[in-house]
Amino acid sequence: MGLLLLVIILGWAFDVINGFHDAANAIATIVTTRVLTPAQAVIWAAFFNFIAYLFFGLHVADTIAKGIVRTEFVTLPVILSGLVAAIAWNLVTWRLGIPSSSSHTLMGGFVGAAIAHAGWHAVIYSEVFKIIAFIVLAPLIGMIVSMIFSFTLLNLLKNSRPSKTHQLFRRLQLFSAAAYSLGHGTNDAQKNMGIIFVALISTKQLPANATIPLWVVLSCHGAMAIGTLLGGWRIVKTMGSRITHLTPFEGFSAETAGAITLFGTSALGIPVSTTHTIAGAIMGAGITKRLSAVRWGVSTNMVASWIITIPITAVVACGIQWISQFV
């Protein structure tokens, strides 16, 4: 029982860290365009992160709980090893200001620990490869939707006065940031719900056919909201100004495109990276001005961090799980 409690507490800690690590995803554009102050932005994002559970199902949580590692090979040490590896990599990338994917740290850690415990056959590779595919697809979809959305709006508003348009999109960004925070909450908070849920099943606290308890849903959303309130200012700078310079119009387009992408993938139960999604959407908004408006060197460094996240956390979790067998 003590180990289960530790797993649950570490799961909540991961959600808090995920919240402040990924706070930049939800608030970078609205802070950079000065629609809200940093303090106002994190409160706004945290609120919509928390209430996301009212609007969407738990498809992503079910995928994490039962679709990545075969449940018969899930043990508390496996979950614990995955969580420790995920938390460690999140803290490292936060310290360096690298907007890596919290989702992929968790998945990589879970998979690596399961392989160390039971071998390669413990993993459901069809689901893992689908998630890996969205390392490319999520930012690409976000970019394309953002470009289409931006070009459409530009054509509709081409005869409007710039000052009037600027003020309009400053107001609209409140709604786009709220929508993106809903998508962030329903996608990212659900990943740890799945981890805690499978921990409860593996220890026979819940039957295999149970539904996720409400206290798990609320506590994970609450931890994510607390983390968002803490903010992640190092990564805000990278996401909000180093990729491209954003105006309220471009911020609105990027957030709306990101939200649409997250709503779609969440409905399908695909755990995608909110970091990848909003980064692609920001690039798409920048491209509508000109290709050179995007700082491709910064973007290339981000993509490199995305590629190495799953392998690194898998190896770290594998090592932790292997060592734990001798302790």
Please, how many domains? 1
Give me the oligomer status: single chain
Tell me, what's the shape? elongated
Rg calc: 19 Å
N-C termini distance: 18 Å
Number of strands: 0
Largest sheet: none
> What do the pLDDT scores average to?
82
Residue windows where pLDDT falls under 50 for at least 5 positions: none
> Count of helical segments?
13
Portion of residues in beta strands equals: under 5%
SSE order? HHHHHHHHHHHHH
Structural class: mainly alpha
Helix content: over 70%
Pfam family, one: PHO4
Subcellular location: Membrane
Transmembrane segments: 42-61, 73-92, 104-124, 131-154, 212-236, 303-323
Organism: Deminuibacter soli
Notable characteristics:
327 residues; mainly alpha
Please explain how this structure is put together.
The chain is built from 13 helices and no strands. It has 327 residues and is an all-alpha fold. The chain is elongated. It starts with a helix and ends with a helix.
Write the layout of secondary structure elements.
Layout (H helix, E strand, L loop, with lengths): L1 H20 L1 H10 L5 H14 L7 H8 L9 H21 L5 H17 L6 H32 L5 H41 L11 H17 L2 H10 L5 H20 L6 H14 L8 H29 L3
Helix pairs in contact: 1-5, 1-8, 1-9, 2-3, 2-8, 2-10, 2-12, 3-8, 3-9, 4-8, 5-6, 5-13, 6-13, 7-11, 7-12, 8-9, 8-11, 11-12
